[in-house]
Amino acid sequence: MSLDRKTTALKQLQGHMWRAAYATGQVTGEVFEDVVPAVRKWRAAGLKVYIYSSGSVEAQKLLFGHSTEGDILELIDGHFDTQIGHKVESESYRRIATSIGCSPSNILFLTDVAREAVAAEEADVHVAVVVRPGNAGLTDDEKSYYSLITSFSELFLPSS
Predict the structure, then answer these.
(1) Calculated CA dihedral for residues 28, 33, 38, 43, nearest 10 degrees
(2) Where is the secretion signal located (predicted)?
(3) What pLDDT, in 10s, does the model give residues 19-34?
(4) DSSP string over 37-87
(5) Would you put residue 46 in left (φ > 0), alpha (ψ -120 to 50) or beta?
């Protein structure tokens, strides 16, 4: 874990370990305060929201079910993890699009990792890079190439 390996088995083990910590309230999932209002607005407009994380689906459900904003699982239409493919492989994004019955060109992927953004774009998925405290830095080229946001409130998305 200290090497931040994104292997499926390790992420699943991590999810099992976290279950007890979330259940007892020792751990809560950090959700930035702009996320829930933005997601509620998108869902009210008929948009669907999916999570694609290197964390297992189980870990995602723990995080969003025990978040700093409460249980927000109702706001999420589905979850994907590395079982669909690695986030730096463009085929993973195509598989997700097929799974949700959507053209890749109708998907917006939010990430803080430039390599993931590259893979998503290769699959014809739209990308915005989220710049948050603690994220890895971006190169000057990445900063000028990608749409950057610091808050979900900066996204103005069309209705479904």
Answers:
(1) 30
(2) none
(3) 889 988 899 999 999 9
(4) HHHHHHHHTT---EEE-SS-HHHHHHHHHTBTTB--GGG-SEEE-TTS--T
(5) left
